[in-house]
């Protein structure tokens, strides 16, 4: 099944959704179309599973950075996670772009909810364990919801190629926004 998903990734990246067929996927995987149908009911079924695998990959990349950078400096952790998100999205960008623009029925953004849930869970836990590093009056759930929603919208534009701002500037702005939301006390 992994070979089929790898082939679907390649065909979708090279040809786009309209020209990505089960015949092309089977050919690229080196299997018969009948063998493909033993695992998947149609093209969209293959691509839904591919979207799930991409979400798992992005989640794994984020988790790996969390494990590597979990420590007393939350800004190092936040930067590493942000870098991991952009790197993983860049790796899958052609596929994600065509899924978002040409195949809305796949509901790709909804399939990425595991990433959001992981980020919110880690953020909430880290803030709870290191409360003194953050604003006293911080509404953790509301702040994380706003930050994640903003990141999701920015990443959607970034993947679709509609963001006029290059990656380094986006990352810098996201880091500053996160710092301001979590640490800067504007009442002083």
From TrEMBL:
<feature type="domain" description="HTH tetR-type">
    <location>
        <begin position="1"/>
        <end position="58"/>
    </location>
</feature>
<dbReference type="GO" id="GO:0000976">
    <property type="term" value="F:transcription cis-regulatory region binding"/>
</dbReference>
<feature type="DNA-binding region" description="H-T-H motif">
    <location>
        <begin position="21"/>
        <end position="40"/>
    </location>
</feature>
<dbReference type="InterPro" id="IPR023772">
    <property type="entry name" value="DNA-bd_HTH_TetR-type_CS"/>
</dbReference>
<dbReference type="GO" id="GO:0003700">
    <property type="term" value="F:DNA-binding transcription factor activity"/>
</dbReference>
<dbReference type="InterPro" id="IPR009057">
    <property type="entry name" value="Homeodomain-like_sf"/>
</dbReference>
<dbReference type="Pfam" id="PF00440">
    <property type="entry name" value="TetR_N"/>
</dbReference>
<keyword id="KW-0238">DNA-binding</keyword>
<dbReference type="InterPro" id="IPR050109">
    <property type="entry name" value="HTH-type_TetR-like_transc_reg"/>
</dbReference>
<protein>
    <submittedName>
        <fullName>Possible transcriptional regulator, TetR family protein</fullName>
    </submittedName>
</protein>
<dbReference type="InterPro" id="IPR001647">
    <property type="entry name" value="HTH_TetR"/>
</dbReference>
